[in-house]
Each structure stands twice: as structure tokens, then as C-alpha cells.
Specification:
The protein has about 250 residues and is α/β, with parallel strands linked by helices. Helix content is about 45%, strand content about 15%. It has one domain: Rossmann fold (3-Layer(aba) Sandwich), CATH 3.40.50. Helix 1 runs parallel beside helix 2, helix 1 packs across helix 9 and helix 3 packs parallel to helix 4. It is globular.
Length: about 250
């Protein structure tokens, strides 16, 4: 890779957790990185500082992915900063749990807005703005496979993202752009661990035969493979990164 003209990666929801790990991994692999965040500027700037301290290039840009106009400005900022965009990682998402019968309109509408419309907004913009030979990595969840109670609306948004992924990969025919999705299982982020008892965490960890939770770095490594030179023949697929849970 020519480090003078690095490939440019835009990672949504990159201020913490899996998104931050992805941003740092892609920067370490030689990408200039747009660290998108919705609300926490301090955490996003901290990710940028860590990347720069390691010798990489990064810029924090605020945008709510549910807002199409904000997404367009996010892409504008990436182009203005680094000259173009080669990689989109659709990591931004929220998870609100509840049975279908008990889920209110707010729970449904917010997850649709962020998880589904947010992914659609960035994919649509990437169709117009990504350079040929680029990569798009969307985020699903292994709950699409496990179909656990109380995850209905959340899993539905992610199942829709999986369908968009497959169709988008075909619509970008002829441009050398791959479109895939990563579907993590339980992953040890602060957001995941918050409010869970040690007993519950251990039970979730043992749902897969490797008997541990995933780490943000585990998921970042999968994304790095898909956007790197060795992942170029993978297209239109969902890669479940869950230690064999499902």
C-alpha cells in the first residue's frame, strides 16, 4: 500500500466499543479514518488522538446517520479532508429490547431510524461517492440466527440490513466494490456489559464452543479482512463472528 495516498475509511459509530476498535485497526492497516460519532465528541476525539499517536491519520466528524442530510455532509467532510472515500463501515446502531407485544412505537421507530434507515442512508451515499474498488461492510447481529426472545425489533432491523447487503452488492456490479455484513455475537463492550450480572455474562460467554465473549478487536479483525486485499473475493455475504454460537 502506498502510504502517501492511503485508502480512506469512514467508520460510523466509531467513538467507542466495536466502532473505535475498527477505526484503530483500519488506521493501523494504513487507512486514513473518519471517526463518525453521534453525540460524544470527547470520546471520538480520544480515538483520533490514539490513532495519531500511533502514526495514523484520522478526523472526528459528527453526524446522526438517521438524518440523510447529515450523512451527505459526513461524506463531504471525508472528501474534503482526505480527497475521497474507499471504505464504508456501517457500525452505528442501537439496541432496545422488549417483547413484540410490549414494544411501543418509540422503541420501534428509533431502531428503524438508526439501524435500518441509517444503514440505508450511508449505503445510498456510498453508491454515489465511493471510489471504484472500494468496500462496504454493514453490521448485522447473530441474533438473526438465534432468534432470542425480546430481540424481535432489533433483529428485524438487522435482517433487513442483511437483505440490503446482498442486493447492494449486485447493484454495484462492474465497479469492483464489495458489500458484505458482519454479524457479531455477544461482545465484551462497556455497552454490552453494563447492567448484566457476572452470572449472566458467563452464561452468554458459554453459548459458543470457544466459551468466551468476543472482543471488539475480534470483530475489528473480521472487518479488516473484508476491507483488505485478502477479502476481495468475498461479496454479498454475511459473516457471523460469534465463536460458533450459531
Amino acid at each position: 500500500m502506498n502510504t502517501a495516498t492511503p485508502r480512506v475509511a469512514l467508520v460510523t459509530g466509531a467513538s467507542r466499543g466495536i466502532g473505535a476498535a475498527i477505526a484503530q485497526r483500519l488506521a493501523a492497516d494504513g487507512h486514513a479514518v473518519i471517526v463518525n460519532y453521534a453525540g460524544n465528541a470527547l470520546e471520538a476525539e480520544a480515538v483520533v488522538r490514539r490513532i495519531e499517536a500511533a502514526g495514523g491519520q484520522a478526523l472526528a466528524v459528527q453526524a446522526d446517520v438517521a438524518d440523510a442530510a447529515a450523512v451527505a455532509k459526513l461524506f463531504d467532510a471525508a472528501v474534503a479532508a482526505f480527497g475521497g472515500i474507499d471504505v464504508l463501515v456501517n457500525n452505528a446502531g442501537i439496541m432496545m429490547l422488549g417483547s413484540i407485544g410490549d414494544s411501543d412505537d418509540a422503541l420501534f421507530d428509533r431502531q428503524i431510524a438508526v439501524n435500518l434507515k441509517g444503514s440505508f442512508n450511508t449505503m445510498r451515499e456510498a453508491s454515489r461517492r465511493l471510489r471504484d474498488g472500494g468496500r462496504i461492510v454493514n453490521f448485522s447481529t447473530s441474533v438473526v440466527g438465534t432468534k432470542m426472545e425480546n430481540y424481535g425489533v432489533y433483529a428485524a432491523t438487522k435482517a433487513a440490513v442483511e437483505t440490503l447487503t446482498a442486493i447492494h452488492s449486485k447493484e454495484l456490479r462492474g465497479r469492483g466494490i464489495t458489500v458484505n455484513a458482519v454479524a457479531p455475537g455477544p461482545t465484551a463492550t462497556d455497552l454490552f456489559l453494563n447492567g448484566k450480572s457476572d452470572e449472566l455474562v458467563q452464561r452468554l460467554a458459554k453459548m459458543n464452543p470457544l466459551e468466551r465473549l468476543g472482543t471488539p478487536e475480534d470483530i475489528a479483525a473480521v472487518v479488516a479482512f473484508l476491507v483488505g486485499p485478502d477479502g476481495g473475493w468475498i461479496n454479498g455475504q454475511v459473516l457471523r463472528a460469534n465463536g460458533g454460537m450459531v
